[in-house]
Write a structure and sequence with these properties.
2 strands; mainly alpha; single chain; 6 helices
Length: 148
């Protein structure tokens, strides 16, 4: 069985001369452009997966790939359809989405978590506070990170 990974492209788009396009708001100004971009990405990734398995592992794609595990963005849904494999939503993405939804709806919980976050930032940012905390526990403050 093979494990294939898809990572979002983070490079800035370039024009035909190879210059970076800074203002990307007008690149996809209608639904058709977005649909074409989604189709292009899915087809490119599908071809890449099939080529990797063929070139490096000399295995048949249909025989070795059972499903696609990913978040449910449009490209991944299209990719699963193109590859004719089942798609399983990533549990971590689903859990993070549910927690964000819960925090949006529960202002009291959100306020408590924000106060804890501010306290931990103060402890982590101060050597004196961090040293005092080490006298009581091995636990270290971890600052909340924003994820997509």
């Amino acid at each position: 069985m093979a494990l294939l990974s898809v990572a979002p492209m983070t490079a800035k788009p370039k024009d035909v001369n190879g210059d970076v396009i800074e203002d990307t708001d007008d690149l996809m100004d209608d639904e058709k452009d977005v649909e074409e971009a989604c189709k292009f990405c899915a087809e490119t990734i599908a071809a890449h997966f099939q080529k990797i398995l063929d070139d490096y592992y000399k295995v048949d794609f249909e025989r070795w790939v059972a499903c696609l595990v990913s978040d449910s963005c449009a490209v991944n849904i299209k990719l699963a359809r193109l590859l004719n494999v089942a798609m399983k939503n990533c549990v971590n993405h689903s859990l993070a989405s549910e927690i964000r939804r819960m925090l949006r709806n529960d202002h009291q919980l959100n306020d408590v978590l924000e106060r804890i976050h501010e306290l931990l930032k103060g402890i982590k940012g101060s050597l004196c506070n961090a040293a005092a905390l080490r006298n009581f526990t091995d636990v270290r403050p971890i600052i909340r990170n924003a994820t997509r």
